[in-house]
Structures are given as C-alpha cells and as structure tokens.
Amino acid sequence: MVYPTPHQPWPRRTRVLLVVLVLSMMGCSVMERWSGSSAPTPYGTGVLRLAEGDFTGAERAFRESASRCESGQEGRRALLFLSLLTLDPRNPEAQPDSAALMAARFLFLPSTTPDEDLEAEALYVAALDRGADPGLRPDPEGQGLAHRFDRCGEPLPPRGERPLPSLDNPTSLLLQNLDLQRRALADQNEVMRQSRAADRRTLADQNEALRLTIEELQAELQRLRRLLRLPDTSTTRLPSGR
C-alpha cells in the first residue's frame, strides 16, 4: 500500500515502533478478509479506508465499531486503531493527547488479551514521546465509545485504577529543552544587537556634539581675532629654511 509522504520527520524509535504496530495490528489476513465482494463491517471499512490514506473515513468507521459493545474483538481493535490514527504524522488531525486517551481507554477495558495490552502500552508510550500529557485519563462514564466488548448489558465489574506506563526521557521533552535554549540564545542575540545599535547611536551623538563644539570654538576664535585685529595664523606657513 502507498501512503502520502510525511510532512515532518519523527524520531527514529517512534517511527520503528509505529511500523511494527501497524504490521501487527493489520496483517495480511485482515486485508484478505474484506477484499472480497461481501460488505465489510465498520472495522473492516476502517482498515480499507486507512489503506487508502483516508484518515477521516477510517476514524469515522473505527469510531462506529468502537461505540458498540456488540462489535466484540473488532471493537477492541478499533480502539487501538483510533489511537494509531491520531499518532500518524500524515494525519492532519493527529493529536498525541487523543492517541494517549484512546490507548488508555483500551487498557482500562475489563477484558483484553496480553498481546493487545502490549500494543496499547506501546501506543501510549509513543503518544507520550510525541508530547501527550501523562496526566490525562479517560472518563469511565463518558458517552460515545463502549466501555466493554463482551458480556454486553451486564454491569461493569469493579476495578481499581490501572497504572499506565511512563516514559522517563521523551523526545518531546528533549525538543522542548532545545527549543528553550534556542529561544534564550535568540533573546541574547537581540539584546546584543540592540546594545550595539545603542552604542552606535551614542557614538554618533558624541561625534555630533564634538563637531558642534569645534565649530563654536572656531567661531569664537574668529570673533576674538576680529576684535584684536590679529592676522589669521591658522593657515600661515613658515618660510622653508628658517
């Protein structure tokens, strides 16, 4: 499949992580399942739209699948794809915070598989690496997306707050620090430029004041000479040899 060229480079570890996730989440069997003549499910439609590079259509289809408990395993996978979509740099609507929330929502489901948990944790950490707020948590009572994908109609089992994975040294933090340093250097350069400009203005003012003083002294000297009727010796040259 062919995708548009990314608009901005990503850190290498994030790119590698997303490639692995896409391959593990989609797989050849997924594409083969909906390549026939039968109408695909909303999840299958989302996969096909994603393969075409239609992020808006893919998100709409995945949300439809993830909003119904009856979607079962496809609903759970749709949640993972919603996280992936909002991490992809080719998606003009990409939002790391949304990606982190979708991955966290999956991890808070009452029943998941170990391999899916690993994928969701990887997506969550990738979102943190792109600058997502680590304090964000999905609303357990929020409307729109299903809170489970099995035993539909039964009350949710009580569960404690699940700890989410953390990232000690996110690329976004390093980039923020570098940007702060760049801005500090730019500010210092601007201060130095303004200081040099002020120095030049001060020197010009001093030169102008000195010129006016010299003109005033010359004018006063001429006035005194006229009063004393003395010859002007300012340009008188002594005869050579004397």
3D architecture notes:
The structure is a single chain. The protein has 242 residues and is an all-alpha fold. The chain folds into 2 domains: 12-150, no CATH class; 169-229. The chain is 59% helix and 0% strand. It is built from 7 helices and no strands. α2 runs antiparallel to α3 and α4 (73-85) packs parallel to α6. The radius of gyration is 37 Å and the shape is rod-shaped. Mean pLDDT is 79; it is low at 1-10 and 27-32.
SSE inventory with pairings:
Elements (H helix, E strand, L loop, with lengths): L11 H22 L8 H10 L3 H12 L6 H13 L10 H12 L6 H16 L41 H58 L14
Question: How would you sum up the global shape?
Answer: rod-shaped
Major beta sheet summary: none
- How much strand? under 5%
Instruction: Compute the number of helices.
Output: 7
Estimated helix fraction: 55-70%
Global mean pLDDT? 79
Number of beta strands = 0
What is the CA-CA span between the terminal residues?
102 Å
- Unreliable residue runs: 1-10, 27-32
Order of helices and strands: HHHHHHH
Structural class: mainly alpha
Radius of gyration computed on alpha carbons: 37 Å
Please give the domain count. 2
